[in-house]
Amino acid sequence: MSQVESDIGNDDWIVFLGWEPHWMNVDFDIHYHEDPENLWGEASSVSSVVTSDFADDQPNVIAFLENRIIPIEVQDQWVYRYSRQDRPLETVAAEWIRNHPDQVNEWLEGVTTADGQESARAAYQATL
């Protein structure tokens, strides 16, 4: 990344292998080229995996995990703040949750509090 930063700072072109999520996508104006011959393989994804027992025993957690789809741009920002700005993970998460209530509300659709007595959305709204 230091070579990329140097070349960009000198207005030189550079080609390199990049990926997401990564802080480089926040720091640099990057263009990803197509891979029509699939030389680098298929696009990757991050998934939550649980045992079938867990899924049966914890439907509330499963509902949350199924709702929680995180756009790559958001992941880039999280990685940037944690890795590049050297901010504590808990701080990055707490600030993002506080600043994105609409997204958090989508994640909490159909989810209840741990005791099952209240909508998780309502509990979250009470903290705002």
UniProtKB/TrEMBL annotation:
Q: Where is the ABC-type glycine betaine transport system substrate-binding domain?
A: 2-98
Q: Which GO terms describe its molecular function?
A: transmembrane transporter activity
Superkingdom per UniProt:
Bacteria
Segments passing through the bilayer: none
GO CC term, one of those recorded: ATP-binding cassette (ABC) transporter complex
* UniProt name for this protein: Glycine betaine/proline transport system substrate-binding protein
